[in-house]
Gamma-glutamyl phosphate reductase
Amino acid sequence: MSIASEKISDASATSQDDLASYCQDVARRAKAASRVLAQVDGAAKNAWLARSAELLRNNGDAIAAANALDLEAAPDYGLTEAQVDRLRLTPDRIESIAVGLEQIASLADPIGQVIDSTVRPNGLRILKTRVPLGVVFFIYESRPNVTADAAAICTKAGNAVILRGGKEAAHSSRAIVELLQKAAQETGLPEDAVQLVSTTDRDAVGHFLHLPEQIDVAIPRGGEGLIRRVASEAQMPVIKHYDGNCHVYVDASADFDMACEIVVNSKCHRMGVCNAAESLLVHADVANEFLPVVASALLANEVELRGDPRTCELVPQAVAATDDDYGAEFLGPKISIKTVASTSEAIEHINQYGSHHTDAIVTKDLATAEQFANEVDSAAVVVNASTRFNDGGEFGLGAEIGISTDKFHARGPCGVEELTSYKYVVHGTGQIRG
Amino acid sequence: MSIASEKISDASATSQDDLASYCQDVARRAKAASRVLAQVDGAAKNAWLARSAELLRNNGDAIAAANALDLEAAPDYGLTEAQVDRLRLTPDRIESIAVGLEQIASLADPIGQVIDSTVRPNGLRILKTRVPLGVVFFIYESRPNVTADAAAICTKAGNAVILRGGKEAAHSSRAIVELLQKAAQETGLPEDAVQLVSTTDRDAVGHFLHLPEQIDVAIPRGGEGLIRRVASEAQMPVIKHYDGNCHVYVDASADFDMACEIVVNSKCHRMGVCNAAESLLVHADVANEFLPVVASALLANEVELRGDPRTCELVPQAVAATDDDYGAEFLGPKISIKTVASTSEAIEHINQYGSHHTDAIVTKDLATAEQFANEVDSAAVVVNASTRFNDGGEFGLGAEIGISTDKFHARGPCGVEELTSYKYVVHGTGQIRG
């Protein structure tokens, strides 16, 4: 429907001038669509989401056919088995994309919400009112379900979105976006509300990142290299989502059964995700008793242990940890372990080696819990629960476009509200300044 | 007290290597101070503010002596009379700086405030808790009172601040910062909570802007050139404060007396400020009746009128407006005027020519007021009051460090809360993900 998705062009065939003007055109259309979208009511956005879900369900075969083209090409891109698995769209996965859109439809409309208000002594009523950010440029890698999620979250928040997916999922993403655009046409949303970048030329990203007048925020989701590139080139704000080197600290007062369950769940529930634990800190006073127990639970899950000298002494299967191990996001069956003399030492270690993402403590002591919650400088600090809960869905945001490791604008899971701004609306009865 | 303010060095005497390492040292100290400051309670911050106010009052002579050095040097810097006036610190102005600090002390402490909370079906209690941003790098021009204001707002929000003031006010700013630092020492705040950059070398700004690990946000306040430079060089987020091309739109249903008062107040109350009106839009249906009235009120205030053909027809003193006039922030006794056929045309004109700062409507019609408030894309939209109210003090924020024309993180007046972030604190009883 929009020219942005008419064809998946060959990178080499596009001259830099053509590419620049293509990107400018996409961005200009997005900006125009965002102006319309900002005034669209919640019912229209929800009708679009519902119709999109319906079209995804009704067109499972077409999506599967497009997906087959991507799966066929996967070996050429050198995808690992796990990556191919993430790329695959089964009927169950298509159903779950559709359900995701319906869940986003069920969220309250954020636009127009009065976030704060004051009545001034002179009678002025000042309302701080939620508005969309404008245009979101979303750069992501090869999971095609992210295409629908991101489009839905951005649009629910009243933003137009420019989607730049990985080339590995190009056909699948295009099939999904065409259905979302068809739904937009049928339900009266602006046709450029959701655009998919049609070229896989890497330089396109650079062109978009230099259009701050049209694009209000860039959100890269993928490896650290991608995020660093976007952060350094972008002329507009960026919501960054760096790595998750998450910790579980087991305090001397911890319930050992609870601690063991939380460590194993944080590490093993899903190893390849950003909120999985990568490091275990144990209070020295309980190391003798607790470390062998937790170690055998981790070993039973085939997790490799890298410990400090004390750990290696207590757990024969552990190998010596390096400084790099303490800084690493393993995203796999490895964990670094360290004994600490105090909660303060644990906090210091986390603030130094961690990535300010998610860190948990297991403790029965109130003052210790408060100290940890106050002093650990992370997007989420968890007391007596798994690190795996730092997630938009688990936090009740309905959906998320990523987990920000920034402090500016958005921190932690970014849902619909994190994709909004505000304006002040001031109501007077003729007031002037004296 | 801190080496950062020990001497105002000569730019030419500093090699680039020395300068880089000086800037790194200042930033590192600020980061360390910010970690301490984040844990300081409100009483300590307020004690510092109160003692700072006291020291400013008790050391009026020393401040005046430092200020005299700046005033003496002013002709060398080619300052205009108005600029010299803004530079001057009279006893009244010193008193008002002290009162400003006391007002900031009287504000509620923002840190630790629970902004939002949810209890999840699994019993997890999720608290969204306000925390400081960290380190603020504040770059400003020649008004020395801004030195104290900015330091107070940043510190109240739990941030360390690196102040980079204009060379024209270097001695005055140094005198003020030395007193703030003395108060910090006496009241137990970290000594590097407030640092003044001691070199006037322009390259220092560039060095600081490349330290994103230490500095969490850069806030430039001054001319557009400064802000564009900072925005383009900074490797950390920037709160930008571009120009204010503010409008007053007088709808056909407006009360003419009210409209005339609001136009004159918006334009003439203080002409050199960002929330002064620069443009007047009048509904064509009432142009015949209203334009001559408002024109003579503006002319009585010696405001030059630049109008469209209809305005020039109705007001002989008006000269023809150019497109540039409609885009201009005059900051002086000039106003552009245009008649419009509808509220939609007024909104379109404002969104195209305005600067998304502050725009007002005068109307009696509810639907028109709502349309204007919804569709004008500005930080503040004012219904039936002067544009001059878009100000941190007037909005009840207590104080402001600037008025953001961005949509990201902070929009409109930036007070203490706009200098904060948040973290999620999750309380569980052993929950794990299934």
